[in-house]
Design brief:
Elements (H helix, E strand, L loop, with lengths): L2 H37 L19 H53 L3 E6 L4 E3 L2 E3 L10 E6 L8 E11 L13 E3 L7 E5 L8 H9 L2 E12 L5 E10 L6 E3 L5 E2 L1
Antiparallel strand pairs: 1-4, 2-3, 4-7, 5-6, 5-8, 8-9, 9-10, 9-11
Length: 258
Amino acid sequence: MNQQELRLVRALIDNLASIRQEIQAIRVNQEATEQNRKNQPVRPMLIELEPDSRIPIPIGEHYETENRARHSERRKARTVLEILGIVAGIAYAIVTYFQWQDFRESVLLDQRAWIGPIGMSDPQFSENGQSVYLKEGNTSTFVTSISNTGKTPSALGSIRSSFRVLPRGAKFTPRYPEAARNLGPIWPGHAVRLVSPQTEVMGNIALQAYKSGSSVLYVFGEIVYPDVFKKIHTTRFCVYLVPNLAGFTDCDTYNEIN
């Protein structure tokens, strides 16, 4: 490095030192100014208020009265809303309960066992080329087919059946000479045979009374059974023999199912 370059480097170093000193002086001055401002006491600002003779009551009392009225209205509105919310909640709970009950009942009705008669067995005698249920000189029994048309099996129940002869026009009432028998579970789609007691030997006079319609022979029965949901059901049925002795038709009464 020659003498000229050396002088330029020294001059640059001197300038940098001078700038540094100025910066340091400025910083010291700022710190001193900040310290003096902190040491000076803070004087409160004085505000003078003149009373306004146009306001008839004190301002504080006016706003306090207004706030009380506003809060009272809010409390009333809140109370009304709370009562309405409670009423709405109770109404919703009631509606939901009855909807659930309807849904439960519909499920039970759809899935439960339904036990009832599906028909009578075919006539066991023949007279003049026609099948008949009664024949002179013979006894008869009447067989009713019972089936489960539901979707679940029935549980252990009871069953009974009988027949009765009444004059034409007499009111039918059931009479069971024998006690009810046990009925085992019946699966969906399965059927059992319900046999009535045996009649006496058919005489000609009784036979002619049936044919003329002056006497009516009723066949009836009762089935009591629980379903898988442990609810008890009762089925009652009644049919009567038509005058040609070839078939049965439903009675106007005692045909019930639940």
